[in-house]
Amino acid sequence: MKKKALIILSGGLDSTVLAHDIVARGKKELAAVSFDYGQKHRRELECAAAQAKILGIEHTILPLPFINDLFDSALLQSGGTLPEGHYEDDNMKQTVVPNRNMIMLSIAAGLAISQGRTELFYGAHGGDHAIYPDCRPAFVEAMKEVLALCDWQKLKLHVPFLHDNKAQIVALGQHLKVDFARTWTCYAGKERPCGKCGSCVERREAFALNKLQDPLF
Amino acid sequence: MKKKALIILSGGLDSTVLAHDIVARGKKELAAVSFDYGQKHRRELECAAAQAKILGIEHTILPLPFINDLFDSALLQSGGTLPEGHYEDDNMKQTVVPNRNMIMLSIAAGLAISQGRTELFYGAHGGDHAIYPDCRPAFVEAMKEVLALCDWQKLKLHVPFLHDNKAQIVALGQHLKVDFARTWTCYAGKERPCGKCGSCVERREAFALNKLQDPLF
Fold first, then answer.
1. What is the distance in angstroms between the Cα of B152 and the nearest Cα belonging to chain A?
2. Are B150 and B109 in contact (CB under 8 A)?
3. Average pLDDT value for chain A
4. pLDDT, tens digit (0-9, with 9 covering 90-100), for A191-207
5. Hey, are the CB atoms on A139 and B133 less than 8 Å from each other?
6. pLDDT tens across A144-176, in order?
7. CATH architecture of the domain formed by A3-209
8. CA nearest B130 in A: which residue?
């Protein structure tokens, strides 16, 4: 029998490719959860819904309005202007939403347990480490431990892209025939990707390294 | 300068006594956060607000409606009948809300970081261990580690009652002159405490061991 698993699907490139990879391997009964936390780039949620439909998996979008109301980040609608530039630049730290990933993981864990699921997938990747404390391998290791203890049944956390870079994820997505036009990466929250924020810069580099045309540009 | 701290204040006995203890010691600039997650015993939130007012501390109540909508627990308005009996009885496990404490801790952590607070207080106590996986010392130790890693600044988790029993907490509350009439323990969600649920049974025992009259009974 397939193991029941839940993935945090943002609608971005990483979690979308991860969802396609899990489904392609055929060993899990997968469902997805996304979070509407007041991100400027809410457009990613439409992509998450579209990808879940393509994959034929159950999809839940949970609103977390308190994050936009009370937390401080340039990534949020309530926050300041989004910095432009490369991810390695220090000003990109303004796009950290305090403890966002732990909040998403803990809620996803509660949902997974309620649905009788025993595994949780999370798409953090190697390119995130320098800016986002809650994407670091040490954080992920500690989360694995705490998620194994949070219920009487063990919940297993998988973070398969933790040491991969974005170019490797694009290559896998291409191999899996992921519709990249239905993934959203830009943080700026406009109709079209800005091409200048750290997230856009990283995505463009990843496509360029694969000698691929990004359908969004 | 006082360190800035945040406490998860349910309005129950344990977190209320803990809040009074922290304020009495005078070493922290304390604020409180409570969660409205669809618990049958929403009445506890009125107690939390009253205690925060008595203590003169900032208090935020965050709604988490998705827990009642999607999670499975007899503690929730959406859940089945609440079991009666002693906490050590196995049927009390129906009152576990999957991963509730980790969800509350992770959101409180995000709020604390947004408010420039570096310490987080959580009132789990020794009597919770047998029923609630997310009150066990091993869980708390793992949470301490993950909360120290979730941001670029370390966030310190304090769980001072982790090895105390409820009778010791009542004794401390009495010493601190806590108004026990403004704490709420019963899970049943009625006008008056039911006296029969595990939570009521434990509270009554704790007052009896201190030879005190509980103002709620």
1. 6
2. yes
3. 93
4. 899 999 889 999 999 99
5. no
6. 999 999 998 899 999 999 999 999 999 999 999
7. 3-Layer(aba) Sandwich (3.40)
8. A152
